[in-house]
Amino acid sequence: MNELAELEALLLACAQGDRAAFRRLYEQTSGRLMALCRRMMHTEEQAEDVLQEAYVQIWRDAASFDPARASAATWLAVLVRHRALDALRRRREEALGDEELAAVADETPGPLDLTLAAVDGRRLHLCLDGLGERQRESILLAFLRGLSHPQVSAAMAAPLGSVKSWIRRGLEQLKRCLHA
Amino acid sequence: MNYRTPERRSQLAAEYVLGTLRGAARRRFEGLMAADPLLRREVRDWQEQLYGIIDLLPAAAPHPRVWAGIERRLAPAGVLPFTRPVPQRRPWLWPTWAGLATAAALVLAIYVGLARGPVPEVGYVAVVDDGSGQAAWVVRREASGIVVSAVRPQRLADDRSFELWLLPPGGEAPRSLGLLSASGGTRLPLARDLLAVLPGAGLAVSLEPVGGSPTGQPTGPVLYLGRRLPDA
């Protein structure tokens, strides 16, 4: 069984209440999902909290996994990213109430680490690498920090119109490259 | 907004997944997605592509205390590593509602009925439509309740109100969530116990006398039903 099919089988077993499957799922996926939490959150402790909360939800929500709507790996990643974005948003709201824009500076204390590992055969890496620096940065800020267009604009100290066009053109180019 | 060209559809799908499509534009897009399988496919493709970013991050196992914490959370009693009842897949049944819903409404494919855990999800989004595939409202879960936005203004007689109902999983009696504005957005507070069952519950909108149902249960025809959207 290849890895993707195995993940899918484990998730479906979790949905049936199989605790051993949940443990195996954790062993197989927590390293990768922790990497996402580490990159999105500011401290190791925050990353661990988010990961823990996410796995509790994975166990409880496993029955809602539908292979027709997402691969198992992506379903897990979407869930973890949303928990991390919630945590980032909560921190922002606690810190500054409604002044979301003013919070951007606070929200990105360690500047976002934009380095991505070159993984053999990963076309996505080549394609992201082929983007303009600002296109790549604005897309990763939106994805990993959950920033809106105006927030990316504030974080990069760049005009809103430029940010919108970097993101739009960057995504277009990404798609062309990925499908080339 | 123009949704027709393939380029535009792809771009909106990408920004939907990325999270930069926000506010009214996001709600309109969700309304379209509900009625358009190809658009959902586009979103799914972007999701698979963009989340590939994870494979480019340096993986490293989390500290063992994370797993210990998960076990603790799932088994507060601590007798077994953790236990919980086997989740029940609940087929969608409307025992007390069948008489109220129109025949057309009953044959709608509703897939919101899977039991979900007690953790309320902020990402929860549902589309409420009339069965023609035209979304009427988008329901979004927020920290303290839900926000219901009219995708387009609805026609409503002066002596009538739209009332939103939550249909708890397991066929319990519907719970009123409040009256909906026929245009624009309505923010409705939601008790914590209802927030917790929201992801596994159904939603419906009935036509009631102005001010809402006098009985606390739906009295008018069910005009719209909710469908949960996949998380982006």
Automatic annotation (TrEMBL), chain A:
GO terms for molecular function: DNA binding; sigma factor activity. GO terms for biological process: DNA-templated transcription initiation. The keyword Transcription applies. Keywords: Sigma factor, Transcription, Transcription regulation. Residues 122-174 form the RNA polymerase sigma factor 70 region 4 type domain. It comes from the Bacteria. It holds the Pfam family Sigma70_r2. Residues 25-92 form the RNA polymerase sigma-70 region domain. PANTHER family: RNA POLYMERASE ECF-TYPE SIGMA FACTO, RNA POLYMERASE SIGMA FACTOR SIGZ. Belongs to the sigma-70 factor family. ECF subfamily. This is RNA polymerase sigma-70 factor (ECF subfamily). It comes from Plasticicumulans lactativorans. The lineage of its organism: Bacteria, Pseudomonadati, Pseudomonadota, Gammaproteobacteria, Candidatus Competibacteraceae.
TrEMBL record, chain B:
GO terms for molecular function: sigma factor antagonist activity. PANTHER family: ANTI-SIGMA-K FACTOR RSKA (PTHR37461). It comes from Plasticicumulans lactativorans. GO terms for cellular component: plasma membrane. GO terms for biological process: regulation of translation. It comes from the Bacteria. This is Anti-sigma-K factor RskA. The keyword Transmembrane applies. Residues 101-222 form the Anti-sigma K factor RskA C-terminal domain. The chain crosses the membrane at residues 92-114.
